[in-house]
Amino acid sequence: MEESECLIERTFITTNMAIPLPDHDHCKFCGDAVPFDMAYCKEECYWNDQTRMKKEKNDNIRFAVLTIVSVVVIAIIGILI
Which terminal residue of the chain has fewer beta carbons within 10 Å of its beta carbon, N or C? Predict the structure, then answer.
């Protein structure tokens, strides 16, 4: 058997073997395993996620305002022309 075939066979065997894991969920920020009753693995992840969500909310508000202003400007230019 060639070396490349052996490597493919070893990879296939190791990736198809199921390792039993305890029931768990994943941290909402970093993705690490956590118990089902926890949303975050540590307090730092909680605060980082809060910061990310606040920034995302502000970005969405800015986008909505910019869209509304653009539509109003285009409508006014359309009326004047």
Answer: C
Note the pLDDT tens digit of each residue in 36-70. Answer: 899 999 999 999 999 999 999 999 999 999 999 99
Give 29: exposed, middle or buried? Use CB within 10 Å, 0-12, 13-18, 19+: buried
User: DSSP string covering 25-53, please?
Assistant: EE-TTT--EE-TT-S-SSHHHHHHHHHHH
Q: How many CA atoms lie within 13 A of 63 on its CB side?
A: 6
Domains of the chain by residue range: 22-80
Residue 35 clears pLDDT 70, i.e. is over it: yes
Q: Could you tell me the pTM of the whole model?
A: 0.63
- Could you give the C-alpha distances from 67 to 24, 60, 61, 64, 70, in angstroms and in order? 42, 10, 10, 5, 5
